[in-house]
User: Fold these one by one.
Assistant:
Number 1:
Amino acid sequence: MKVIFNSINTNSAGTSNITKTALNQCKSVNHDEYICYVEDNKFFKDVNSNNFTVKKVNFGSGIKRLFNRFLFDFFIFPSICKKQKPDAVVILANYSPVPLKAKKIVLMRHPYLVDDNAWKLIKTRKHYLIEVIRGLMFKLTLLSTDKVVLQTDAMCSMFKVKYPWFKGELVKIANPISNDILSLRESKITSLEQREKILFYPSRYYSHKNHEFIINLAVERSDFFRENNIKFIITLDENGEASHLLDLIRIHNVDDIIVNLGEVQQSELFYYYKNSLMLFFPSLAETFGNSIVEAMCCSLPIVISKKDYAETLCLDSAIYLSGKNLDQAVHSINKCVERWPELSELVHTKSYSFFDSDEWVFRILNMKED
């Protein structure tokens, strides 16, 4: 079987890590031929694979980038598929607007494409316009898609409401977890007493990630955090769209409570998964949430927004935040500490329901549903 994987649109730490996990760790190809297209950028700088043929594409920057990306999506990639004659094409993130000469499998992993509540969180006209364009591209994609893959039951339910006219097959397959993370399930758990008083939130900036809630909580309940020597650790790009949030942290003098690591490699996150007090995850919308599963594999208790994505992923293994209530958030932190051994065991058990890249590729290509 010849399969082309299109990972051109996986230009974030989270989505690119999923592609790299498959490229570096999938060993199930045997007699199959797998080709993967990625963008030549910082996320795929050192990517290599013994099992995939990796093709890097450089789009340039500015207007040139937009023009080259248009050419690739509408003309170059369809031409590649016509010439290569693959048995299947796997679009690893959302968009492939032109019909292809192969079975098209699309992974939907952008919450704004299905979650109408996420649109209410958009703060700028630029962001709104971008999401409108993305929505149109996705609708074009669906017209020629055979199968759509979503990561949770919540996403499947919202998809059915948003696109009742979709004629193809809809399946749920969770994201793959790297072998490095999965191996941590067997590691000795650092006890509560030995852990640092860190509330860990590894996430890049998007409006729906709700970093503002953490800043507001730190400002309004600063006495609680300082008296208990509790810190938030976040991972925002210093030079990216989150610069205004980092300015707020400094202006409100809570940079002793909220510490920003900047964007870091996944391997650097292991320390915080293994030694933090809890994962504090206030995001208001997710298609999956790899950070949540990674925390589970490290037996790290979770405090998370009470949203559909969280409840379908965590079930009863997490403590839930309700809206913007700051007192309830402090209560949830205290409750998590009180129930720490129990919650640590619950998330550790839940982590065994997730799988590696071999199983993921098998399910994607065979459409073996969870």
Number 2:
Amino acid sequence: MKKIILVGALMLLVSAGCSFHKKSAEVKNEDKPNNQTQTIQKGDQPDYTPEKGKKLYVDSANGFQFTYPDYMKIGLNSPNSVLGDADHKVSGLYVGNYVFVTVSDKNGLWAAANTYFHSFYDEAFSTEKELKDFFDNAEGPTAACLKTSYKNNNGLTILGIDCGGEGGSARYIYIQGKDEDIFVDGYSRGYITSGKEQDAYDQNVVDFKTDQEFSDTLASFKFTK
């Protein structure tokens, strides 16, 4: 049976996309937007030393850590994410072009993040063959999502969806923890709306060079609380 995967919602998301350019620069705390703060705290004691070519990011305030390629810059917060809107912004940590948002009952974002993610995930195809058959038999422009999963070295469950079709693509990932989760917004790039925000993005965000490097970062992800 054919599935129609929230075409209207996906098309609305894709229509709001922007183009971006990247260049490297050091992130300084005073350059960060005044929103949800996620920083490396002095005195943090990493559980291990990352392998050659990688660095370790530790967020003691929100209780997580992960490794990432050493050519990237981590530390800038996004202006917004798909969980927010113009009046109620929900920021997160830029990890390449992805936005990592800490969600929990405590910060009031858990329900919104789960509703958003599962509105796509629960209707997504499970195999590439199903997805191909859907597009091959679709009448007119449409869009659909494919379920994905990611390995984690610390026993965490990581669910994902890759959505595509007319208008562009989107990726969303959900990392399940005990008292808090991480919602990964792989679509909005923070919904930049000002020149200042764009400058901060251009100067401080460097994306992953390959999907494998991104998968390796997810594999290393660990909650520390």
Number 3:
Amino acid sequence: MDQQTMDVVKDVVKDLTFNGKMFSAFDVTKVLRNEKGLQVFHSEVRRAVHDMSVNGEMPIDYTHSDVTLSNGKNAIVYHPQSADTLQYDEKAIGAQASPFAPAQSAVFSSAVKTTPAPIATKTSNRDRRGRFCISNKLTKQVGLLPFGQVTAYADHSRIVVMKSGNCGMFPIGVKFHGLIVDKDVNIRLSPGILKEAGLDNGTLKAEVIGGRIEVFAK
């Protein structure tokens, strides 16, 4: 693979990880072929994506899992540690319509327009993957920035979200989730962590309490 193609691979992976997407190397290959117009060998793309993971060129909260696809075959899927891989859709990326705006073909800049998220305090706001969105109206109140890192944990019937490295005292035995703030300064909580807190059903509410964000049943 030449350096120019490798640069495009890295740009695509950065776009996917910055948006907290779950993806396989074949998803990247589809983007290159169907959206970027490049003729590439999947084996070369697979190796390049694997090397990015091994060399620490993905966010620190990204990991990979062996996932069974709808056709019964298995694939390595790269995803945030808090993501529910059962929600992975191999048809969601690289089909026809591009999920990337032209201005996002490289690392995001201040020129990228942001789309306000619905206010989390007024709606359960679960997307088609069952994720709950904490809107930028709340995240900005606690000083979060695009692509910043946060820590979340389930504590009985609530979820607590705060800046990573500024967590203070934790309840004993909690499971921590590392999350990345998206480009619009929103945070999306996966069905997995919602279930840990017993919040996988019903309407939810998010509030800023004591310099951190708490999510609980409304």
